Amino acid sequence: MRAAYISQNGELDCIQVGEVPDPEPAHDEVVIAVRAAALNHLDIWVRKGRPGLELCFPHVLGSDAAGTVVAKGRQVDSVHIGDEVVLNPGLSCGVCEYCLRGEHSECLYYGIIGMNRPGTFAERIAVPAVNVQPAPPHLSYTEAAALPLAYLTAWRMLMSRGNLKGGETVLIHGIGGGVAIAGLQLARLAGAEVIVTSSSEEKLARARGLGASEAINYGTNPDVAAAVKDLTGGRGVDLILDSVGAATWPINFGAIRRGGRIVHCGVTTGARTQADISALYWNHVSVIGSTMGSREEFRQMVRAVGIARLKPVIDSVLPLVDAANAVGRMERGEQFGKIVLDIKGAFTESVAA
Ligand SMILES: [Zn+2]
Predict the structure, then answer these.
(1) How many Å lie between the centroid of ligand 1 and the Cα of residue 114?
(2) What is the Å distance from ligand 1's center to 100 Cα?
(3) Ligand 1 centroid distance, CA of 217 (Å)
(4) CA distances from 200 to 22, 188, 193, 211, 245 (A)
């Protein structure tokens, strides 16, 4: 089968498209014929290499996918050949203390498809049967493939870890990336008001079109915390969704209300920074970490998207052979929404068709 893979860690030019062996399902796995696969920043981390991460080369990249089940192991009863599914990329052991609590993304052995086993930028992929959910019928394969990692991450950040309530105000940094846009759409779904930031007027305008009530250009207005305070009558926001890291950490303590929650999921601008800790305890601020989500949170997110007929924001759709160009676009931060690889050349076809 064809796939986009790397044979060594490195820069963009190490992404190749070619033939790799077909996957065989284990007894508790299914094989998905991948119709579309979306990109995530994780693809960049995996390609460049991370301390402690040992890849088995050639390593197929990609964590998000939507497609059709075409084979299954002998112990799989819950999923059937022909099912149109969306993939939960989280891998958990199922038996550790955290899995038994239902907190699969806290698993002691947590891994992600595309990082700890072969990924989705391929015509077929074998995955545990517990990792697939029926795709929402109102979505095309392209749209369904855009959901898993970003929308699951944002769902857990807002709903579970952030305990978001309707009527609250959320600040989302760096609108344009997958988790930030997913956060905007899901926060609006929950009845929250959303303030976004970007240095691109075009991205801010598009965020307003998705329901952001206020948009701060940090290029022309670098004191984001003061701007947020102005926009909230001096109070600050209830919740901050931060996938940016070092650049935004100091801003957060000036933009959060007393007793507010700051939820972090990533460090696209770096992991090392400084902060005034007195602003933390004096203002009763909670700083909360979050990664991906549990199986139940994935089910909730996919179901909520289906009930609300929410459409994930797609930046662009490229063929598998353009995988390196697609990753390059993401690496340069040019995208607004998810970049999706069309694996089967049928990305306008409805999942329900
Ligand atoms: Zn576990």
Answers:
(1) 18
(2) 7
(3) 42
(4) 43, 21, 21, 17, 19
Give the CATH fold of the 163-289 domain.
Rossmann fold (3.40.50)
Polymer length of the chain: 353
Q: What is the DSSP string of 213-229?
A: SEEEETTT---HHHHHH
| Distance between Cα 130 and ligand 1 center (Å) | 14
Tokens representing residue 168 in the block: 């609250």
**Residue 38: C-alpha distances to residues 50, 128, 149, 204, 234 (Å):** 21, 19, 9, 23, 39
CA of 292 to the centre of ligand 1 (A): 14
The CA 103 to ligand 1 mean position distance, Å, reads 8
How many A from CA of 157 to the centre of ligand 1? 20
The CATH topology of domain 2-150+293-342 is Quinone Oxidoreductase; Chain A, domain 1 (3.90.180)
Domain boundaries, the chain: 2-150+293-342, 163-289
Ligand 1 centroid–CA 91 distance in Å is 9
Q: What is the pTM of this model?
A: 0.95
106 CA → ligand 1 middle, Å: 7
Q: How is residue 306 written in tokens? A: 């289906």
Q: What are the pLDDT tens digits along the chain (353 aa)? A: 999 999 999 999 999 999 999 999 999 999 999 999 999 999 999 999 988 899 999 999 999 999 999 999 999 999 999 999 999 999 999 999 999 999 999 999 999 999 999 999 999 999 999 999 999 999 999 999 999 999 999 999 999 999 999 999 999 999 988 999 999 999 999 999 999 999 999 999 999 999 999 999 999 999 999 999 999 999 999 999 999 988 999 999 999 999 999 999 988 888 898 888 888 999 999 999 999 999 999 999 999 999 999 999 999 999 999 999 999 999 998 999 999 999 975 333 433 33
